Amino acid sequence: MVPPAFAGIKKTLHFFRKFAIDWTLITAAYRSRTYPVNKNKDEKRTMKTIVVCSGGLDSVTLAHKVAGENELLGLISFLYGQRHKKEITFAAQCAERLAVPHVLIDIAHLGSLLSGSALTDALPVPEGHYAEETMKLTVVPNRNAIMLAIAYGIGAARGAEAVATAVHGGDHFIYPDCRPAFIDAFQAMQDLALDGLARIKLYTPFVAGSKADIVRIGAGFQVPFAHTWSCYQGGEIHCGRCGTCVERIEAFALAGITDPTEYRDHHFWRQAVARAEKGGVA
What's the Cα-to-Cα distance from 97 to each of 53, 67, 222, rounded to whole Å? Predict the structure, then answer.
């Protein structure tokens, strides 16, 4: 008997065969997009870029940045068995806003094997600052490496020159596959994997910056921050207490930009930051 975790393999292979046709048709339909872009865009060579977009603040800002400075081919999102799918809605809205294709890839069967994370299992979501040790419960093993490898394969098939992901400096403490060393190693690996087939850049413009920097950049590209989702809880509004909510509120405060997000608890973040600073980790 085939294990349930592998039951979706045939379906996934069918998806990729169908995807090659769908992407071409969808892209052609959107060639006349009218979203305003950077007027200096044509003064330099642009990269045909696919953005891995979760629907969160970081990746939506990245999508707007790429659309304004390069040629955005489309957005790719993943269902990997995460505890809620709310942010996927905002990724779809972003694609519609920027008039590009949005492809949703279901790897939930694979994700079911990546157990042990509060993002995929029935574990309590840790509250507090990302710099706290408890936030390691939000790590999904090798998640970015898996998603990027898929995005690179699609990019090579579709003639992309770059795959963009919104990893940033605030991720480094907790997530090993968001660190500069990983980015460099992944690029080297893909250069070998696609040798003679394609040359695709891993575009990570935020990797050395903070989330506050991303908020400032997003404001410059008129990103509708209210139409992004960060909270791990997936409730009606952001909880204000999980690591990503605390980081989001703090980022707007540090950037000096009004946060349009509604939170269930808009005060806890100061306590969380103070606790992290007291522990010498923030």
Answer: 14, 11, 12
